[in-house]
Amino acid sequence: QVQLVESGGDLVQPGGSLRLSCAASGFTFRVNFMYWDRQAPGKERELVARISPAGGVRDYVDSVKGRFTISRDNAKNTVYLQMNSLEPEDTAVYYCNVRLVDSDYWGQGTQVTVSS
Predict the structure, then answer these.
(1) Can you give the pLDDT at residue 89?
(2) CA distance 57 to 34
(3) 49-94 pLDDT per residue, tens
(4) Which of 43, 47, 87, 114 is deepest in the core (most CB within 10 A)?
(5) Up-side HSE of residue 66: CA atoms within 13 Å toward CB?
(6) Cβ atoms of 35 and 47 closer than 8 Å
(7) Between vectors from CA 48 to CA 84 and to CA 71, what angle results, nearest 5°?
(8) In sequence order, which residues have a C-beta less than 8 Å from that of residue 95 and are 6 or more positions away?
(9) How confident is the model at residue 109 (pLDDT cuts 50, 70, 90)?
(10) In whole angstroms, what is the distance from residue 15 CA to residue 35 CA?
(11) Residue 115 carries which DSSP code?
(12) What mean pLDDT is reported for the chain?
């Protein structure tokens, strides 16, 4: 079955950096777009970034452009989100997401808290 396991969330000060990882299994990772979503307290889940199967297409929500970088390692079935210059507004649970023919799938999420 499809499994997405996120890791790397933590408490970090404003201006700090984190690298999130998502290990995927149960589907053909290398042929699928991968997505990072986030959900802040009291807010709807939003798409943060996406990456094409070979990594040539990378899109970001405006609020993270220039600060976040999505990448993937198809040999390891892993997608990453490098987050720099973190702001309190980035505080959220971050989810890895894949959209397959039968359904969309998310992991359990990893908590990122940006606070001094």
Answers:
(1) 96
(2) 11
(3) 999 999 999 999 999 999 999 999 999 999 999 999 999 999 999 9
(4) 114
(5) 3
(6) yes
(7) 65
(8) 6, 36, 37, 38, 39, 45, 106, 107, 109
(9) very high
(10) 24
(11) -
(12) 97
